[in-house]
């Protein structure tokens, strides 16, 4: 199942795809989920993004998932993980 927000994101990129302007572009994929990682959930969004990048000849250079973020401030409990992800993003952007 594809979330509405993810579908809109993919749909908005369609004009670029039609003109072959996504070819060889890099993507950082981030998923924030309200469930525990032992439950099937965010894998769907990352799988959809993987499929999208395969079709468009894009490359996912980094991906990460945050779990147990049901309430808007739950993400704050992942401070160390967020800092690590930011560091990884900076390294990928530099390379």
Helix/sheet category: alpha+beta
Mean pLDDT: 87
Number of helices: 4
Indicate the low-confidence ranges by residue numbers.
none
| Bulk shape | globular
Number-wise, the strands total: 2
The percentage helix is 40-55%
User: How are the strands ordered across the major sheet?
Assistant: 1-2
- Profile the largest sheet: 2 strands, parallel
Q: What portion of residues belong to β-strands?
A: 15-25%
Number of domains: 1
Distance between the termini: 34 Å
Specify Rg, calculated over alpha carbons: 15 Å
The succession of helices and strands, N to C, reads HHEHEH
Description of the molecule:
The chain has one domain (4-94). It has 95 residues and is an alpha+beta fold. Helices cover 47% and strands 16% of the residues. The model has no long low-confidence stretch (mean pLDDT 87). Strands 1-2 form a two-stranded parallel ribbon.
How would you describe this structure in keywords?
alpha+beta; 4 helices; 95 residues; 47% helix
Q: Outline of this structure?
A:
This protein is of the alpha+beta class. It has one domain (4-94).
List the helices and strands and how they pair.
Blueprint: H1 4-12, H2 14-18, E1 26-32, H3 42-56, E2 59-66, H4 79-94
Parallel strand pairs: 1-2
């Amino acid at each position: 199942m594809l979330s509405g927000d993810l579908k809109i994101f993919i749909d908005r990129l369609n004009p670029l795809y039609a003109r072959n302007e996504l070819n060889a572009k890099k993507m950082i994929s981030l998923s924030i989920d309200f469930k525990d990682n032992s439950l099937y959930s965010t894998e769907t969004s990352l799988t959809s993004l993987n499929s999208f990048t395969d079709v468009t000849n894009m490359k996912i250079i980094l991906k990460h998932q945050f779990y147990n973020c049901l309430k808007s401030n739950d993400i704050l409990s992942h401070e160390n993980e967020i800092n690590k992800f930011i560091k990884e993003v900076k390294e990928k952007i530099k390379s």
